Structures are given as C-alpha cells and as structure tokens.
Amino acid sequence: MADKAIVPVGVRLTTDIEYRPDRLNPYRARVRWFDPATKRRLSLSEGKADEDEAQEWLQSIIEAAEAGLSPSLATMKLAEYGNANMDLALRGLELKTLDPYLSGWRMRVVPALGHLAVRMITNGAVDRTVQNWIADELSRSTVKNTIAVLVRVMEQAVRDGIIKVNPARVTGWQKLYKQAEDELLDPRALALPDWETLVALADALVAASHDEYRGWGEVVIFAACTAARIGEISGCRVGDIDTTQWTWTVRRQTTPAPGGLTDKGTKGKRARKVPIVEEIRHLVAQRILSAGPNPDARLFTGPRGRRISTAVLRDATHWDDVVTKLGYEHLRRHDLRHTGLTWFADAGVQVHVLRRIAGHGSLTTTQRYLHPDVHKITAAGAALSAHFNVLRAPRSLPSPIVMTR
C-alpha cells in the first residue's frame, strides 16, 4: 500500500500498511520518522487483524506526535513504562507502604493491564479490571493498594504528557464489595424471573449492538440455559457438543492475559458436562452448522470471528444502558449463570447433580440456590397450621361402661 506523509510539529512521520496473508495478524501498520537528536531513522510496527485496526493504531500515533510525543513513547506498554518510572511514581512513600504497592503492581496490575499501551488505558478498562479483582475475592486493602500504585504510575504519565487525564482514579469501587457479598449470600436474588424476560433481554441487546449482531443474543440465552460463565462459552468448541445426548463438555474458558485474550482450563480445573435443554437445541444446531466441520471451531464468536469475553459482550451490546432501560440496572453478565442455576434448582434438580452442572468446589455454594420460593414458604406455614389444628382437635370421649348382672 502507498505511503502517506504526515507532518506534525517537530517531526515528520511516514506511515504505511502492508498486507501479509501468511500471518496471524496480516495487516502490518508501520510508522517511520527521523529523530533529529540522534540523526537516525527509526520505525515501529504492529500486526493487526484487519485494516481498520491498523488505521486506528496509526492515527493514535499521529495524534500523539501532533501533541509532541515521540512514537516510541506514545506506544509504550504500561508494564514497560511503570517499571522504568516506578521510582518517580512512588517517591515520598514510607518504606512500609512500598511492599504492598509493588506487590500489587507485580501480581495484579501488570498481568491485567501491562500489555496495553499507556495511552490506550481507559476508565472502562480500569473499572472492569477492578471488578475482576473484587470478583476474585481479593481483600479491600489489597485492592486499595493495587489501585493506589496504578494511580501513581498513571499520574506520572500525565506529568510526562502521555495522557491528559488519569483513568485510574476510579470511585465507588467499595460499593462493589457489598454487591459481591449479597451475591454470595443470596445468588437467587440476582436471577431473571422467567424465559420471556430472558428472550426480551437478548432481543434488546441485539437491537443495541452494531449491525444488530444476532450472536450476542444467542450467547445470552445459551449462558442462562446452561448456567455457564461467559468465558466458558467463548472457549466452547464444536467438538465439545454431543448432539446425540445433547450435552456440552465444558473443558476451557477464555480469560484476559498479557497480549490479549487466551484460553485455559476451567475455573475448577476439571471438565464437566452440562445438559443442553430442548429450548436451545435449534440454536446450537444452527451455530454448529455455521461453524463448519472443524471440531476445534468456536461455537460462539464476535461478529468478526474473534474470541468473546464478558467485557466484549458488555461494550458491544451497550449492556449497562440496555439493562437499565429494562429495569434491571444491577444485572451483570455473571447473573446469567445465577439465573440458570436458580432455574435448575426450581425445576427440582438434586443438589449433588446441580453441583456437578455448576462445577462448584463446595456443596455449600450450590445449596444457596436451593432457598425456597415465597410460595413454598407460605405453603410450609399452612402445613404447620394444619398440623396445629390436628393437635388441638377435641378427643372423643370413651364409650360409657354398662354394668350388667
């Protein structure tokens, strides 16, 4: 493809996109410039999945150059930038504070966000990362220290002119702990009430997505009917589906990792079988047909054939706006799993079977889905009242004894 000359203040950039069909990411976006200080010609390049992504990458570098940043600094990953500037970022802290901050950086920030360029880290990315830390049951102090070190590194990036606003200054994250505690105590309260509500939610999410991609609605319905996590659905392959017994063997899940999404074993590290109910068998059959004969093909993907995740589903469908309009403003993607387990429990599935479907390590976790509904509670009260009435009923007197001579 032809080069395109860009002339920002102080530096001349030349950009081009090369298509290399033999590569996993075939569109190589490249930027070249002349460094006036070293008198050397420098270049940077990245492979992208399509031309639009390549153009977006180039445009971000052009905008950074216009703001006076070199392409090297504009594309620097958070892990590299933080490690190089940690002393500046943490200056003034007491020694007893350094250890928990550095531990948070090393064990949580870098694995979650370190692969992203500093300029590409958004408020939404930080919000979702913090939610994941809370979902992993990290303590409040651990999350607080981890956020604090991220805030300091990003504040240094503001001072260096890489970004204008610090996206790590999140607020309200403490409230998420209350929601997580409620979920652990009463997951049934987070479930959708019925099938019609589920279908209405799926349709609304499709309508809100770009090009009204039907796959998003199918993911939502499949998640609720199998009580599976979104990451597990992303990891589902055609070969995992048994259309004779109509079961799904859950073997893997898609999770965030340095460099993007990756597949790994399930959360419990064990494969499990999940029934595919009659209501979604036609949906599954159509997905298998669309995926083709390759047993390793993914059953569910995004509109461009890529892996999906709970964050991808949220952003693509404008999830928060949709559920708020439907009156379920607290509904999260994980609540589709709570919905499925609640429905299985209400259908009378025995607790030891429900535990295997859920993949729970503890029976106590599964038992939380067995809390009786209100009508069962009132029925139990009526039964006790009937029992009391029997106890209070007058006893019949014995027949009189007749004396005979």
Number of helices: 17
Q: Structural class of the helix and strand makeup?
A: alpha+beta
Rg of Cα set: 28 Å
The major beta sheet can be summarized as: 4 strands, antiparallel
Query: Strand order within the widest sheet?
Result: 1-2-3-4
Question: From N to C, what is the helix and strand string?
Answer: EEEEHHHHHHHHHHEEEEEHHHHHHH
Termini distance? Answer: 129 Å
Low-confidence stretches: 1-9
How confident overall, as mean pLDDT? 85
**Portion in beta strands:** 5-15%
Strand segment count: 9
Fraction of residues in helices?
40-55%
Overall geometry:
globular
List key phrases describing it.
alpha+beta; 4-stranded antiparallel sheet; 17 helices; 3-stranded antiparallel sheet
Provide structural commentary:
The chain has 405 residues and is an alpha+beta fold. It is built from 17 helices and nine strands. The strands form three sheets. Strands 1-2-3-4 form a four-stranded antiparallel sheet, with helices on one face. A three-stranded antiparallel sheet has the order 5-6-9. It has a two-stranded antiparallel sheet with strand order 7-8. Strand 7 and strand 8 (260-265) form a beta hairpin. Helix 3 (78-89) crosses helix 6 (140-159) and helix 4 crosses helix 6 (140-159). It is globular and about 105 Å long. The N and C termini lie far apart (129 Å). The model is unreliable at 1-9 (pLDDT under 50).
